[in-house]
Amino acid sequence: MANLVLVRHGESTSNLANIFTGWLDVSLSPKGEEEAHTVAEKLRGYHFDAAYSSDLIRAERTLDIIVSRPAWATIPVHHVAALRERMYGDLQGLNKAETALKYGQAQVDIWRRSYAVPPPGGESLQQTQARVVTFFEAEIAPKLRAGQDILIVAHGNTLRALRMYLERLTPEQVEGLEIVTGGVCVYHFDAQLKILELRTL
Question: What's its catalytic activity (predicted)?
């Protein structure tokens, strides 16, 4: 039996400004810092054998705040590029509302929510899922099968891609999957990684 806890980073300065962020390396907003502390409080009492985040500042900082609690101060922490947000290509740095005015809301919704269609010059969710799942199966799954409890702090699309894989969601189902900043999802697995319980905190 093992737990996998997935956390979306706290609100970033780009989230606050309604900007397509992708691989832009931006900090947490003051609200995002508070959200990270709230996540740490929600996870009080959980045990972790290892923790992972993407190598982008907003995810690193969220994880650093969480593991600053004495109970987790000594767990191994890893920051990895495979857990980065979806690369938004030509949209990175653009205001979402202004982009919708230019291209139409329907087109922007396809770029943001669809599984297979990438934004111009960027990654589709399908491509993001390929790198995230490759990392998960190589690094995380063996630890879970061995009974270790793992914490992952990443990004909205990274976690959508991973949740789609773990929960066997369809492309249509994942289009409607929203993960708020500071959102927490807890899986309890058996030794074959069958989901025994799934909770959001």
Answer: (2R)-2-phosphoglycerate = (2R)-3-phosphoglycerate
Which residues contribute to the annotated binding site for substrate?
8-15, 21-22, 58, 85-88, 96, 112-113, 156-157
Structure tokens belonging to residue 158: 């990274």
Q: Residue with structure tokens 């857990």?
A: 83
Instruction: Indicate the domain borders of the chain.
Output: 2-200
Domain covering 2-200 in this structure, CATH number? 3.40.50.1240
CA distance 53 to 28: 14
Q: How many CB atoms lie within 10 A of CB 138?
A: 10
Is 47 part of the annotated catalytic residue set?
A: no
* The one catalytic residue among 35, 60, 85, 123: 85
DSSP string, 32-97: HHHHHHHHHHHTTT---SEEEEESSHHHHHHHHHHHTSGGGTTS-EEEEGGGPPPP-GGGTT-BHH
Residue 137 annotated as catalytic? no
